[in-house]
Each structure stands twice: as C-alpha cells, then as structure tokens.
C-alpha cells in the first residue's frame, strides 16, 4: 500500500473565532465589540456582502440601544463561552493536535483604552488553554479576529487613529504575558487584507464618520497602523519569549485568467498583486513597489512615523498563515461573463469547478497551487489555518448529519495538501478545518451556513436548543487522524 508519510510535528487542527462561537457578549465584564453590532438581516441576499457588513452610525446607535441578543447572532454565537469544556472534549476525541481560536479583545479590555485588564477575561482564556493542554492540543492564538472593542471605534475612529496601535499592544502584551506558559504560536490579526473588502467588520471603520475625507485613504492609513501593531507583536515575542513564533495571516484567493488571452493573464497577475501585497509586507518587511505605485496613482498618501520602516523590516513574520476556501477567474473584459465569488472576492465563474450553496467555487488543486506559490515567494513555513465548506446541513430524525459533501470537500483539499507536502518541496506546519462546531457566518451572520464537524441546533433567528450532534465529517476526520503520520493514499481516494 502507498502512504503519505508526514512529519510527526505536523499539526492537525480545527479553527474558530471568538465572535462567531463564544456568545456571552455582555458577561463577566466583557465590553461591546464591533461584532456585537452585526445583525442577521434575512431581507438581504446573503451573497451581498457589502450591504450586509456595511454599517453606518445610525445602525451602531440601534445596536447600542438594544440590549438583547435576539437577532444579533454574534452576541449569542453557539455559546462556546459556557460549553467549552464539553466542546473541547468532543474535539479532542477526533485526535486533533491543534486548535486555532481567537481572543475577544473586549473581554480583556472592555473599552479598549482601559488601563487595567478585566481579570475574569484573562482567567477564562487561561482555563481554556489549560483545558487544551490536558489533551495535548497546541493552541494557535489569534489576537484580533473581527472583534475590536466598540468604544475604540466611537472614541478614536478605530485603526485610523495611531493611538489604537498603543492600545492593541497593551492588549497583546497582557495576553501574551498571561498565557505564555501555554501558548507559543500567535497570529496578531486575522486576514489583515480584509480591511480593504469589509472595513467595518474587519477593522471598525465606518464611512460616515470620515465625511470630507477619501475613505480609501482612511482604509490604507488604518491598514498601515495594523501592520505596525502586528510588527510590534513580533518584536515583543522575539525579545521576551524567543521560543514563540508569530505568523502573519492572509486570505488566500487564487486568481486565474479566464483563458490564455494575454490581456486576461495580465489582469489576473495584477489581481494577484492585490492578494500578495499584505503577506509581502509582513513576510518581507517592506511595502512592495507595485503597491507604492498603485497608491501614488490613486493619490493616497500613508503617513509613516520615524522608525516605522525599520520596525517592519526587522520584525517580519515567522510563518505565513492563510485561509483557503476558493478561487476565481478574471478577464480584461468581463461583459457577459457569469460572476462568482471566492470568499468575499468577486470574479468570473470558472467552468471547470463546482460551487458551494453560497456560490463559492470549490477548487482543491487551487490549494496546491497556493502552497507552491506562497512557499516559492517567501521560503517561510506555511500554515493553512482555515479551510472548510459552508453548507446547509440537515439533522435526521435519528440525530445524524450525513454531510458527505463536506467530507468530499475536505478529502479533496487534504489530498492536494498532502501531495504538495510530500512532492512539491514546501514547508507546512499544519492544517486546520474551519469549523469545530457550527458557528455564525462571518460574512452573512447566519447560522444556516454551517462549517462545523459538530452540528449545533440553532437557526438563523437564534431559536434552538444549542444541543450538539457529531456529523459524518466528524467521524471521517477522526478516522483520518487515527492514521497518524502515515496516511494510506487509498483513504483519500475513497469517495464517500
Ligand atoms: C474567513 C474568516 O475569511 O472565512 C472567518 O476568517 C469566516 O471568520 C470564514 O468565518 C468563512 O466565511 P463565512 O463568511 O462563510 O463565515
């Protein structure tokens, strides 16, 4: 029998974000976060990300006035906050060796600018990582995943103000110091590139607060502050805890030319520059000249402080983490071509691929292409920290979920990853499935877009028992992990 032989240290895991699972939005001293202001809006087509996630000041007002969690899906999540012992136990039973999750910033610094942290918040995460240690699960911790304290938005206009760098560093250092015995892998900011696509839900920027200013300039200035804050985390960890590793984290979307027309190839090359810009800055430590030129052309000027360039240059990421769900095509002239989406990137439909119920095209080979491209570009260890399928699942009368479509998605992606790992000369630290339990979708704020290996009985309106049920994909992952570091090729050939 043929096997994929992999390194013992390879981390097999699952991943979540606090705002999508925790709930407990106003408990034990937690402050309100930007995620608590995102409402599930059934009247909006869930693929219309811009209107779902574009928030204005009036909506923030109504979020502040409503103290219930009804209709605010990220306020209740799947109540991981009260169920984490049982949820972690269930996950540990699959045999995972890593869990990537995020800290709710507002649970530690409720207002963001507080001088002292909220002890209950720190203790919650300490207990959580101790629980993981019980099962030998390595935590991969994201410091900010779409959930900054709302007060920083209202008082300072979020990341646009340089002061936020100081507050983020205070938060980061507090958490790193408190958890340093347990956590060695850190990711300062999730999908740092997403500030461009959804500036509010990613980074708390509200357009109507910047009247008279070019909002695109505002976004790029805020982006620069995020880079500085992330480099500060790298510096702090390297100076204080040299055994720690800090990664950058980007949304990976592979963009193909629609066909071999050189104009389409050129368009795809240019779009790929937009994808690479963020990891280029964090992995290489300099703004790429193509980005500088692009900003000059748009008349956008980023204000740098003395020492910024050196900080970025001297504190590059130790590893390149990324999410991978989908790919898109592009064409010079898109008129008449069918439109599609890859995560929140809009592109042209690829006739060679199938698509999810939310219209994201499914492209396992694209994952292999991404691994080769990213490794060749940076020569740094890579980490797939998110990969999974958002789909509608059905709980049968006898409490099963036959999600063969998800098993198929995972099987195909994991197979391409293992081929790449064993044949392409890349360095890969691990792989995390997006979805432990089901959770609230980041883009559509829905429950019915399910990613988990474990089903949670909860609907889009927040009705349900919160009971958990293991899906077929749970048992499939468990079976895979039982092979340890020698996985039979035949296991990944078997269609479910
Ligand atoms: C990633 C985000 O981009 O995509 C996650 O980091 C998100 O937070 C995931 O959940 C899937 O996207 P969605 O919108 O389907 O939840």
**Cofactors, ions, other ligands:** 6-O-phosphono-beta-D-glucopyranose
Helix count, DSSP H or I runs of 4 or more residues: 18
CATH class: Alpha Beta
CATH architecture: Alpha-Beta Barrel
Gyration radius from CA atoms, angstroms: 21 Å
DSSP helix fraction: 40-55%
Please state how the strands of the largest beta sheet are arranged side by side: 2-3-4-5-6-7-12-13
Shape: globular
The CATH topology name reads: TIM Barrel
Count of the separate structural domains: 1
Total beta-strand segments: 16
Distance between the termini: 20 Å
What's the CATH H-level homologous superfamily?
Glycosidases
Question: Strand fraction band?
Answer: 15-25%
Concise overview:
By secondary structure, the protein is α/β, with parallel strands linked by helices. Helices cover 40% and strands 17% of the residues. It contains 18 helices and 16 strands.
Written description of the protein model:
- The protein has 18 helices and 16 strands.
- The chain has 496 residues and is α/β, with parallel strands linked by helices.
- It has a single domain, classed as Glycosidases (TIM Barrel).
- The strands form five sheets. An eight-stranded parallel barrel has the order 2-3-4-5-6-7-12-13, surrounded by four helices.
- Strand 10 and strand 11 form a beta hairpin.
- It is globular and about 60 Å long.
- 6-O-phosphono-beta-D-glucopyranose binds next to loops.
Which helices and strands occur, and which strands form pairs?
Blueprint: E1 3-5, E2 11-15, H1 18-21, H2 49-53, H3 57-65, H4 73-76, H5 80-92, E3 98-102, H6 105-108, H7 119-134, E4 138-144, H8 150-156, H9 163-179, E5 185-189, H10 194-197, H11 199-203, H12 215-240, E6 245-257, H13 262-284, H14 289-297, H15 308-314, E7 319-330, E8 339-342, E9 345-348, E10 354-355, E11 361-362, H16 364-378, E12 382-386, H17 404-423, E13 428-434, E14 454-456, E15 468-470, H18 472-482, E16 486-488
Parallel strand pairs: 2-3, 2-13, 3-4, 4-5, 5-6, 6-7, 7-12, 12-13
Antiparallel strand pairs: 1-16, 8-9, 10-11, 14-15
The chain binds 6-O-phosphono-beta-D-glucopyranose.
